[in-house]
Amino acid sequence: MRLASDWIGADVSAVLQLKNVHRSYAGVPALAGIDATLPNDAYVSLLGPSGSGKTTLLRVIAGFEPADGGQILFAGRRIDGVPPHQRGIGFVFQNFALFPHLSVRQNIAFGLESRVVDPVTDVKIVAGRVRDMIALVGLAGLEDRAITQISGGQKQRVALARTLVTEPSMVLLDEPLGALDANLRTRMRGELRKIRERCGVTFLHVTGSETEALAMGDTVLVLDRGRIAQSADAGTLYSRPASPDVARFLNCFNIFSGELADDAFVSPVGRLALGDARQPSAKPAYAIRYDRVSIRPKDAAPAGDEVRIEGSFVASEYSGAAINSFFALDDGRVFEVETHLSHAAPENYEERGRYALVWKKEDSLVFA
Amino acid sequence: MNATGIKFGLGLYTALFIVFLYGPLVVLGILSFQTGPEGGPQFPIIEWSTYWYRHLFGLTPPSRIAPLPIEQALVRSLTLAVMTMVVSTVLGVTAAQAFRRKFRGSGVVFYLIVLGMMVPGVLVGLGMALVANAFGIDRHWWGTAFVLHVVYTFPFAFLVMLAIFNRFDPSVEEASWSLGVSPARTFRKITFPLIFPGVLSAMLFAFTLSYDEFSRTLFASGRDLTLPLAIYGTFSVEVHPNVFAFGVLTTLFSFALLGTYAILMAMSVRRARRVAIQEEA
Amino acid sequence: MTMAATSQDRPAEAAASQDGKRSDRTFWLLAPGVIWMLLFLVLPIAMMVYVSFWTQTTFKIEPTLTLKSWITFFSSDTYIGALWTTVRIWLIVLVATLVVGYPAALFVGLFVRNKTLSTALLVLCVIPFWTSFLIRVLAWRPMLGKEGAINMILMNLGIVDQPIEVLLFSELSVIIGMTQIYCVFMVGPIAFMLGRIDPSVLEAAQDLGAGFWRIFRTIILPLSMPGVVVGAIFVSVMVLGEFATAAALSGRKVNLLGNIIVTQVGSLKWAFAAVAGVVLTVLMGIVVAALLRVVDLRKEL
């Protein structure tokens, strides 16, 4: 028996499958053929710059907007064409979209009592499930408050509780932390993950912030111009972005365009030695992570396996445990270097002074 | 603005302006207490009395001045106003609901609806009378006049609801659907309670406009008079203070209506606030 | 597996049908209102145009097409006179409501920065509207009459010896009455537009040393223009379709197109009434179209 259920579990391990999903507005494509598979019981982040179609994708999955073409399979069932209230997919809005005329408790109970499929009519059962959910998301004591009387973080929890209490197998979260202030955002990240683990549902979390996507997702989908550009775990994504564009969104790579010659990459700032890391790509590019570069005096000689370019110092910026320094290269482009303060004390660079920017060629990533 | 002199001048002007707006009504109110039946609709007041109010309700001995035919007319006007209110509010809400989504030809439909409040009553009234003549339809206040009242009030209800829906966040409806609640139940449990203040305003608009409407009714209502038509009938004959007394009474009635509306509004606001107060305690 | 396979084989127009459902829904939501307006607004107006070409006999009209009623209308001094009276009264009342209403709107919308007070003042302006329109018209009779309030006050103050008779049953009384009744429609939209002006803009202008008139001309007046136009549309539409005020206050001295229609219908001259109606419709169309060119009504709402 145990074996059988495992077998079935494996069969439907994908909770959501998207096959060639299209959507366009007045002829302008927003989704240009999305293919993706979301595993059961996982935290998936969907990262994309604004205008990449990420909110559209979420709304198409939820059924708020129709797909123009393609298939959406949810728990093995085709759901494109099914109205939203029959899909069984939860949705948490960026602005929370709580029902302003209902109290916290009524907001959470609403779905259970009013849904079409399997409504819970027993007041006691509703009360019990709502109580458990309020405890789970940490809202105890606020049950009878009006929605206008609670803080942003509490609204976020109500929105989550309202959805989770209906026990969907997947919850879509549209920039759920976007409306919160920075402190709260960091705290809610951890809480969201914990709550998800306890409920065992799949979260699809849309965000425009690469740090949020990398920190939260077991899997990260990167959306670019209406297509999935990469689907990988955070570590892989960070070290091996699939394309120069993905590398650019991650906001931690210096990227040079140019041509691949036999043993080097010819870029506007000179020939750059190659490492072993290659990614197939239509657009050739050479990428080096901000934190792999060291800054040295102009006359320091590089070692044999190092790549060296020159730049003049522009400015630097503290961000917690790291300092980001900006250099202007000879072609005018800005080159960024991230130095972790645990490795070295911050140095003062001379404004407009020339420095050598050096990295190991194995650390580079070449798209060709 | 800190132009004190100008501010003072404009304030004084606005006070005069309000006197201008209210003056005739105050004079009318005073003259309604003229003695009767010999007292006329002018100063000076010969003697203060409630004669003309009693005259309205037929409580005075018969005199050469015929009582206003208001009893039947009042019932008709109220019935007509309620019918108009219900139909135009339903039409207004449904049409505004359709306008929440972009669709082809929305501009044409918008102006078609708004036209209803722009075209003078005398024109639609005339047109309706001609249509009724041509098709052999009898003209009645509950038929030909009623449909014209709705033509007039539906645009107001529509615009009120359009403004309400403009400020309405559609994501609360989507949230309800995503919880598995059907669109019909979502409208009843979520959308309607949230737009209710707007619906109330649309109803008030429709009721008062219909209750006061006479230029459409004039040609389209046939033989039976509504209240405004009864008043209009006095224009061509000598005016007696009984019309003034009647004016005072209708004004009081309107204020009672407005008061009811204000109370209903305050109640719906307080209901929202009560939950908040409970939690403070 | 078979389940999944069959569900995938389902025709791919699922999305198209969902789109179709949405436009169906829009159609059914709009159908009642649109049909109502077509039957009871567009059809009557079209009928009026049609009947204006019918043949008028003494008490009857016959659907034999003719231009006779039109020729009668445009060769009659009475009817042409009514047309010009309508245009004249409309223009005078339009200007009068603007002149009378603008300063009050300026005070309420711009100088009263206390939200409650400005709302209260606006409500105070609107309250008379809950009195019957006809009663408000009628209320001018005891004000303006020979033994009316104004004459009484003027004589008691010794300003005049004889009561001023021209106050009532004249064009003047119609203009006074209409101005009072309709000026609120001018005040409302203007005050609304003025209320949206950011006070810091005006303060900045004052700090730069601009005097009140200069600020008024360069900032306040241009920003209030949409309100003026919307108010003008309201007032124009209502004044052009008027007949009751003239009937109550002019003693039949002022005949507007509306009055012509009423008397023609009263004497069963349907075709003549229809001609007057079409002329009035065209006049209104020109006025409203001209005003709408200045401001997009839909955007202002």
From TrEMBL, chain B:
Transmembrane segments: 12-33, 73-96, 108-135, 141-165, 190-211, 243-264
Subcellular location field: Cell membrane
InterPro entries: Bact_Polyamine_Transport (IPR051789), MetI-like (IPR000515), MetI-like_sf (IPR035906)
Keywords assigned: Cell membrane, Membrane, Transmembrane, Transmembrane helix, Transport
Recorded topology in the membrane: Multi-pass membrane protein
Record family assignment: Belongs to the binding-protein-dependent transport system permease family. CysTW subfamily.
Protein known as: ABC transporter permease
Organism (species): Kumtagia ephedrae
From TrEMBL, chain C:
Domain ABC transmembrane type-1 positions: 83-291
Subcellular location per the Swiss-Prot or TrEMBL entry: Cell membrane
Transmembrane intervals: 27-53, 89-112, 119-139, 172-194, 215-240, 270-295
Membrane topology: Multi-pass membrane protein
Subcellular location, principal: membrane
Keyword DNA repair: no
Domain of life: Bacteria
Keywords from the named record: Cell membrane, Membrane, Transmembrane, Transmembrane helix, Transport
Pfam families: BPD_transp_1 (PF00528)
Any Gene Ontology biological process: transmembrane transport
Any one annotated GO CC term: plasma membrane
Keyword hit for Transmembrane: yes
Family according to the record: Belongs to the binding-protein-dependent transport system permease family. CysTW subfamily.
Name of the protein: ABC transporter permease
Species this protein is from: Kumtagia ephedrae
